[in-house]
Amino acid sequence: MIRFLLKGILRDRSRSLLPIIVVSLGVMITVFLQAYMDGVLGDSIEWTAQFTTGHVKVMTRAYQENMSQTPNDYALTDVDILQPQLEKDYPGLSWAPRIQFGGLLDVPDENGLTRAQGNVKGMGLELLNSSEEIERMHLNDYLSSGDFPKQAGEVLLSRELFNQMGLTLGDEVTLISSGMWGDMAMYNFKVCGTLQFGINSLDRGFMIADIEDLRLALNMENSASEILGFLKEGYYINKEAQNLSGSFNQKQTKTQDKFSLLMLPLSDMNGMQFFVAYAQQMQYLIVLVFVMAMSLVLWNAGLLGGLRRYGEFGLRLAIGENKHELYRSLMGEAVMIGLLGSIIGVAFGLLFSWLMQKYGLDIGDMLKDSTIMMPTVMRARITSTTYYIGFLPGILSTLIGAMLSGIGIYKRQTASLFKELEN
Amino acid sequence: MIVEVKHLTKKFPVGKAYFTALKDLNLSFAEAEFTGLVGPSGSGKTTLLNIIGSLDVPSEGEVIVLGKSVGRLSPPEAALLRKQELGFIFQNYNLLPVYTVFENVEFPLLLLDMPARERKKRVLESLSWLGLSDKVNSRPAQLSGGECQRVAIARAMVKRPRLVLADEPTANLDSVNSHNILQAMLKLNQELKTSFIFATHDEKVIGYLKRIIQLEDGRVAEDRLV
């Protein structure tokens, strides 16, 4: 019977072509939107995690209260004890100590006088002893000239800052900032490379150096502004991060002490709560919208098809198919059409998503003067969800459409079939 | 008896009143009959055919088809009776246009969940009876009216029903095709012992009938063997 129905669907274009086109289009858009939203929102979340928050962050309570000012006077101390302890207690995460700082970058001329000066924000992370942070932050992708620090005292500058200050690789620059103890800190670095993030707020004035150099520069021996934790799955899982933070914070007893430790998940920092929830719910919203929209179109298509096939349904009832069987066979046809349309739609959706993932959409020009921290190239991301999410609206909408339009079968009076079939 | 009609009355509501289509009808049909319900429009032929075909139910009285009282069958039971035991032939053939001749004839067997090999054998046999072996892969649109009606007969006969109900089967056919069709049905009636009940007012059909039941205003005016 399934073969029989399938033959009918394939041969009767008016029965199958419009629904398949509608389903394919809807599914294609659903798949593409899911991959696009996942890519853009996921990228933004991961960007924030990699540069600012981690998937979880350990810091002091006082540091957390003033986090926007990167108050290194409230930094974590005894990192050589704390980090191994975190690694032992939470083996599902990898931990990365960071120093966040701001200051003034001074470029001296040949006489030692200021040739150029500019505000700079920066980060100290482990660069010399391990390539883990370079890989985690995909810094290779952003290296536009030179190389990563190979020895102490070397620094990477953002490309725009580098150009504005008229620097060449190998030039010396001086960081002027405040130390951990409130003292004034000055430290010389040698520029070994430049980075171009494609994020204007970073490209305007950013530096990255090895964390040991920053400890020396800012008098932060064995300290760190924060220790970021990254889930080994490689992407942010809100529930897991929430649970980890909850269990960590429960163990802290001296909560009134401003130097006591606090762990926060990404969603509780930088106003990310809404964003994380939004990213999670967005794909379901897309599916829901497309199920409803396509169901309406397919309902109408089903009604038109039902009118065209009025004689066929009458004949089938007359020769012994009961109404439930007929209705079920309509549902079977709907599933076949939904499946066929979904396969086509998913294939095209994946193709467009792949193109968007590979080439992306460069919106750098639009963000030229923006201070928002987001990637300038918007990319889709194909995940396991992308492969199946299109089947939900594809099959559900055809089923709902057929269910609604097929109700007419139950209103058919068998007593009038002979007369109806004469017309 | 294959069909027994006892004190059958059928009324249809017309506004607040009722129109009585069949009035206290008593009839019986034996196995392998070739019978016609004859009469002018409105005489109750199609209504009686409907009730015998379990498509409608009596208002009063009883109709027993193959031992089952039609009025007491639930809709699924009535559908099962039609599916297993009854064949229908319509004035307009009502073939499914997207399917081939073979597939059209095969359809009632699919409803019976018959195995593929048995289905194929039965379909080819039916088409052979009706001289359609060379049209197996044709679509209805490629056939003449007479050929379409022969396909419809093959479809009605393929499951070897005990009773075939035909409503004006020759109404859309010319004289030559009508005779061909009727001869084919007569042959099936004789060889397979299938009972045929026609509703007709076509003289060509009447000439082939072995029993004629003349209906007038919902009553039997005449019931005679030919």
Which structural traits does this protein have?
heterodimer, A: 423 residues, alpha+beta, 2 domains, two-stranded antiparallel ribbon, elongated, B: 226 residues, alpha/beta, Rossmann fold, 35% helix
| Assembly state of the chains shown | heterodimer
Could you please say which CATH topology of chain B applies here? Rossmann fold
- Strand order, main sheet of chain B: write it out: 6-7-8-3-9-10
Biggest interface in this structure?
A: A-B, 28 and 35 residues
* Radius of gyration computed on alpha carbons of chain A: 31 Å
Return residue spans of chain A where pLDDT drops below 50 for at least 5 consecutive residues. none
Q: How many discrete domains of chain A?
A: 2
| Helix and strand sequence of chain A | HHEHHEEHHEEHEEHEHEHEHHHEEHHHH
β-strand percent of chain B reads 25-35%
Give the CA-based shape of chain A.
Answer: elongated
Structural class per helix/strand content of chain B? Answer: alpha/beta
| Shape call of chain B | globular
How helical, in percent, are the residues of chain A? 40-55%
How many distinct folded domains of chain B? 1
Outline of the structure:
Chain A has 423 residues and is of the alpha+beta class.
Topology, element by element:
The complex is a heterodimer of chains A (423) and B (226).
Chain A: H1 2-11, H2 13-53, E1 56-60, H3 61-65, H4 79-89, E2 93-108, E3 114-125, H5 132-136, H6 139-142, E4 143-146, E5 154-158, H7 159-164, E6 172-178, E7 184-195, H8 200-203, E8 206-210, H9 211-217, E9 226-231, H10 238-251, E10 261-265, H11 272-308, H12 310-318, H13 323-359, E11 361-362, E12 377-378, H14 384-389, H15 391-405, H16 408-411, H17 417-422
Parallel strand pairs in A: 3-8, 5-7
Antiparallel strand pairs in A: 1-9, 1-10, 2-3, 2-6, 2-9, 4-7, 5-8, 6-7, 11-12
Helix pairs in contact in A: 1-13, 2-11, 2-13, 2-15, 11-15, 13-15
Chain B: E1 3-14, E2 17-29, E3 34-38, H1 45-52, E4 60-65, E5 68-69, H2 75-85, E6 86-89, H3 101-111, H4 116-129, H5 145-157, E7 163-167, H6 175-192, E8 195-200, H7 203-206, E9 211-216, E10 219-225
Parallel strand pairs in B: 3-8, 3-9, 6-7, 7-8
Antiparallel strand pairs in B: 1-2, 1-4, 4-5, 9-10
Helix pairs in contact in B: 3-4, 3-5, 4-5, 5-6
